[in-house]
Amino acid sequence: MPKSLREFTTADWRHLRPLTQTVKSWRYRRVDSIYRRRGARAGDSEAVAASIRSRKVLVTVAFSDPQLLSWQTRLVRRYVPDTVHAIVDNSPADEVAAVNARIAGDAGVAYVRAPPNPWSGQRAREGASDQARAASRSHGIVLNWTWHNIIRPGAPEAFGFIDHDMFPTAADDPFAPLAGQDVYGVVRTAGPRWFLWAGFCMFRFAAVKDKPLDFAQDWFIGLDTGGGNWNALYRGIDRNLLREPPTTFVPFRAGIEVAEGPLQWCGIWLHEIGLMGDPGLMGEKRAAVARLLAPYLNPAP
């Protein structure tokens, strides 16, 4: 959404930003509206919706990394056993999606492949400075598709979205805080506004089912994926009353700065943060995550 008129500066008006932002917002909403009406490329979204009725469901949006998905499905099954786990696959490549589908099947996890994503191609066409926004648009439109085609018709007791590189390392019920509040997750801020990060966010379905939720980003007011819910949901919630998970960032090994190779702890959940850090350290970082998770994936008898 464009900013409110009072937030535009003189320079914004001189460059016609109120007009261009309105046009771009209309375009994004139009693309989203068309996309959400498309059927899944694989899997049965109606069957998944029926399976979550009155239950708690964690939905992972997977993207092109079967190793992460394999780790996550095993850890969620072990440490979050009373929750339905579902995979919505946003991987562009058929061969990767086929591997993800096998991983989900072997783990007994519901699997749906999202429709071809209109924004994913921008990752290859755009420069590095724009790729994060392309990834955000790609992720957000799949979250909206999932809300309209699985969550809303499925009417669960509660639902949550997690990134594919989020790993529980101890028994947990991420929905427990919803007993005293309508939403729960990692909070991010942009000026006076805030939103729940789309990689770890939980919602009490009865509290949000009739709201025009929008899990896309809202770059015009500085909000990443999930920030589109500011007007529909978050602005009506007093953040000061929210229970939030403890969150810390650490380097994956000693001797480097956090920004060079960050990991994030969200309570007992480990976030790899695969898009952040020095690209030259990504292989070493993945190996470090594998070593860190090994005791949880293969506990001693």
Give the gist of this structure:
With 301 residues, the chain is of the alpha/beta class. The protein is 37% helix and 20% strand. It is built from 9 helices and 10 strands.
Q: How are the SSEs placed, and which strands pair?
A:
Layout: H1 10-14, H2 17-35, H3 45-51, E1 56-62, H4 66-79, E2 84-89, H5 94-107, E3 110-113, H6 122-125, H7 128-154, E4 158-163, E5 166-168, E6 183-190, E7 193-204, H8 205-208, E8 247-251, E9 262-266, E10 269-271, H9 282-297
Parallel strand pairs: 1-2, 1-4, 2-3
Antiparallel strand pairs: 4-7, 5-10, 6-7, 8-9, 9-10
Helix pairs in contact: 3-7, 4-5
Could you characterize the architecture of this molecule?
The protein is α/β, with parallel strands linked by helices and about 300 residues long. The chain folds into three domains: about 1-35; about 40-240, Spore Coat Polysaccharide Biosynthesis Protein SpsA, Chain A; about 245-295, no CATH class. The chain has helices at about 10-15, 15-35, 45-50, 65-80, 95-105, 120-125, 130-155, 205-210, 280-295; strands at about 55-60, 85-90, 110-115, 160-165, 165-170, 185-190, 195-205, 245-250, 260-265, 270. The strands form two sheets. A six-stranded mixed β-sheet has the order 3-2-1-4-7-6, with helices on both faces. Strands 5-10-9-8 form a four-stranded antiparallel β-sheet. Helix 4 (about 65-80) runs parallel beside helix 5. The chain is globular. The chain starts with 9 loop residues before the first helix and ends with a helix. The relative contact order is 0.12. The model is unreliable at about 120-130 (pLDDT under 50).
